Amino acid sequence: MDPALVVIIVVVTALIFDFTNGFHDTANAMATSIATGALKPRTAVALSAVLNLVGAFLSVEVAKTISGGIVDDAQITPAIIFGGLVGAIMWNLVTWYVGLPSSSSHALFGGLIGAAWVASGVDAIHFAKVVDKVLVPAIVAPLVAGLVAALATIVVYRLKKAADPRVSHTGFKVGQVASASLVSLAHGTNDAQKTMGIITLALITSGSLAPGSAPPTWVIVSAGVAIALGTYLGGWRITHTLGRGLTTIEPAQGFAAQTSTATAILASSHLGFALSTTHVASGGIMGSGLGRDRHGVKWGTMGKMAAGWLLTLPAAGIVGAIAGKWASSGTSGVVGVAVIGGVVSIGIWILSRREPVKPEHIVDEVAAQAELHKVAA
Amino acid sequence: MTIKWEALLQVFGATLLVTLLVVTLFVLGIRALSSDKKVPAVASFAGCVAVVLYGLSLIVF
Fold first, then answer.
1. Chain-centroid distance, C-alpha B41
2. Residue A136 to residues A144, A191, B2: CA-CA distances in angstroms?
3. Using CA atoms, how far apart are residues A52 and A191, in angstroms rounded to an integer?
4. Is the pLDDT of residue A30 over 50?
5. CB distance from B39 to chain A under 8 Å?
6. How far apart are the first and last CA of chain A?
7. What is the tally of structural domains in chain A?
8. Is the CB of A267 less than 8 angstroms away from the CB of B7?
9. C-alpha angle with apex A84: A195 to A65, nearest 5 degrees?
10. Phi-psi region for residue A188, left (φ > 0), alpha (ψ -120 to 50) or beta?
11. I need a labelling partner for A32 at 20 to 30 A (CA). Which of A8, A221, A251, A368 fits?
12. CA geometry: angle A347, A349, A350, nearest 5 deg
């Protein structure tokens, strides 16, 4: 197959992955603000989309290796990248359909590991790095964010007793919007970079760019736009889980959760222990729920999420392996993977239309929840 | 396999201290605001803004 054509396919697939990454992760930044009514759903996703777009342009720090040393970059071909991306997209769509917040980075790592393993052999995988960079952070992130959010929530609720409830209600909503905005911005900087890195690598392997080049402007623009578009379209299914499924959220609590999420993400990316935004945000919401009321947390939902996190790597890996192997076999393989991937994606989308989760649903339920609170008080 | 315990502890410590600092300042600001003490309120919120600006500078640079 014409190498240029393979590169075009990889670029398009990478942008589709970026788009799914956007709508998968809207919830991380905005679920609590939507749940407490600090922002209307459409306003929240628009704000988050703009900040993701801005974030994509802010950082000059380019992801030099897309894989962070997990797979041997020297053994990666465009067909493997393509297979890995297909695995990651499939897992993102399935988890979106069931409303499960799972890490898009882990899906990408899983897909790449699977594809590289079957196409280049087991030597291409650095398993020690998998433990360091994927497994340990996945356990640590929710614990760190959860513990900090719980303590922050306890402090906030202790101290706010002396405040006028009306002032504090409005005040915490404003604080929530500020901290959620910071999460969106940091997300745009990190996650859009990932896609830029992949596209740049594909261009380098095909010889269109000199090795070590920075991403061309069109790559930065298209990756930023793809993630912003995905963010704007919402991912209401996952927002529903995070905003409602784990615990009920009050503004002061949402503020504490978002502040610890924003801080943990920034601290982790600058002190060299990278944590997934999704795991941090989920842990933060959980911790703040525990901090407010020890019995106010739905452990069942948390258990399902944790199981999903463990499955992310192998599930995306298996799909990535099949897709990567087939795509490596030549033109028919690439076309076959693309067609099947497209059909499955459309299938999941049609399934999701049968039981749509719309922003109105989340808001209605939140209103009902607020009524309950009044009665209880 | 080398787990970077030191980096992990740093992340945890930094997250804990900064989060508690911001939320405490913010709540104190809200308390001051609800009892109409303008100066302490502005000072508390200014502290929060300073931390947020520092966060922004981490993202940008």
1. 15
2. 12, 20, 10
3. 9
4. yes
5. no
6. 68
7. 1
8. no
9. 45
10. alpha
11. A221
12. 65
What is the domain extent for residue A329? 3-376
ipTM rounded to 2 decimals: 0.91
Q: Tens of pLDDT along A63-120? A: 555 656 777 777 778 888 899 999 999 999 999 988 888 888 889 889 989 998 998 8
Per-residue tokens: B15? 């997250």
A139 touches chain B (CB under 8 A): no
B-chain residue closest to A280, CA distance: B15
Interface size, chain A vs chain B, as Cβ–Cβ contacts under 8 Å: 119
The yes-or-no verdict on residue A154 having pLDDT over 90 is: yes
Residue B5 at interface with chain A, using a CB cutoff of 8 Å:
no
Residue entry with tokens 């979106």: A96
Q: What is the rounded distance in angstroms from the CA atom of residue A366 to the CA atom of residue A110? A: 35
* DSSP string for A185-234: HHHHHHHHHHHHHHHHHHHHHTTSS-TTPPPPHHHHHHHHHHHHHHHHH-
Query: Do A59 and B60 lie within an 8 Å CB cutoff?
Result: yes
